[in-house]
Amino acid sequence: xxxxxxxLLALRQIGAGATGLWVASNLVSIVHGVSWGVGVWxxxxxxxxxxxxxxxxxxxLYAFRMLLLMGGVTIGQQALNGIHNFMGNCYFExxxxxxxRKLAHKAARIDPVRYESPDFLDDVNKAGEGANxxxxxxxxxxxxxxxxxxxFLYMATYLYAQKPLLAWSIVLVFxxxxx
Length: 179
Hints:
Blueprint: H1 3-17, H2 19-55, H3 60-108, H4 118-162, H5 168-178
């Protein structure tokens, strides 16, 4: 099986196991990804405010407000990180239970004499391990689209708004990693 076929097999299991938790976790993942981009914006706002305050073109109170904004965004990022990780762990545990139940139902239909064969027992063990590995594959594959894609799109838009040439930096920095 290829990567995308395995990913599609894993995605089909979601409907039977934990659809609501999967959707909620991925919505949090999208917001979490965007929050890291917002953190860059808040940090720039803070440093610009400090620069302006030290040059006398802005009040120190403005720099303090930007500090509070940056702190609030950072706290929000960390809260979203914790929620996202917690939901991911809950999803993984719920889906692991679903996969084990599915495997147990299939194993119950097998003739007990087949369990005498060490090769067959090895195959059953590999199926159990594979169920957990495919969940990890599915979670990682989906996270690329729900966390990293919104983050990179936000950053590309943000950098383009700063200076259009900067948007190309995302391609130049991350394209070598993809290949």
